[in-house]
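Class, carefully examine what follows:
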Amino acid sequence: MTFRMLRHIAAALALISAAAQVASAQFKEEAFTQSYADPNDTTARDTTDKLFSFKEFFGGVSHKRDVRIGTLFAGSMLFIGSEQIYNRDYWKLPVVYGGIGAGVGLGTYYRLRYNKTGELKDRQMSTWMFAGAGLVYWGTLMDGMIRYKRDVYPNPGKATIYSILLPGLGQVYNGEAWKVPLYWGFMAGATHFLLLNNTNYKRYKRIHNEATGEDAASYNTPISGETAKYYRDVFRRYRDYSIVALMGFYLLQVIDANVFAYMQDFEVNDDLSIQIRPTVITPDVQYAAVPAPGTSAFGLSIGLKF
């Protein structure tokens, strides 16, 4: 009885071992032979290892291939209007070039005029004209991103660029508008302390220069030069910290928009279960380390759902 039981156990172990060898061999073959790239996906060819590809960019602008949103955005920052060409919004090009050209041209004109006359209104007009050109440039980039594949949602690249162009817009795109007041509050606080510390830094810098300059005797400074130097360095350091905080909150909201756009399709299910059931595995005849053709291996399959 004992010998017969041991023989059955040995036979079962042999069958399980054969099944494991079959599964392992099949897994190895599939892992090394399976192709994960779509042969019809033109954006996956010769561009997946590059952050930016001129071949991909100009191919997309000429409508010969698809182009990634990051490549299109980066190229359009230099080649203005490329996004409108890619999106086939040709009628917007005169508005783009005319707006930017008029702003830069008038800004340059008033700047040269201010250099001759020294009038404050000429300098202000120059500043407003350059600001207008910058606003048209920003609007051009934003328009291109909005028009890019409007039927594809979620698009992590679009969410990221939205947040780069306008902090908080990526969160709105992801349907998480409640985060916008938080990020704007953090950035507004950092900006407040940046301006405050910069004002104090300039104040104590001026006092220090007056107290230690050649005409120090003619100035009635409220504190000594050494004390002014100490406070100047303190507020300069606080100003730098404020800049780091502002940039940190800005980058954080960009990363947040990107990560949560990727997680839009992530399914969170409370169903956690495990299934164990008997299984029959028929070996493939091409492997030599398996039982002879026609035999089957019996074992257990374990399925974990989470």
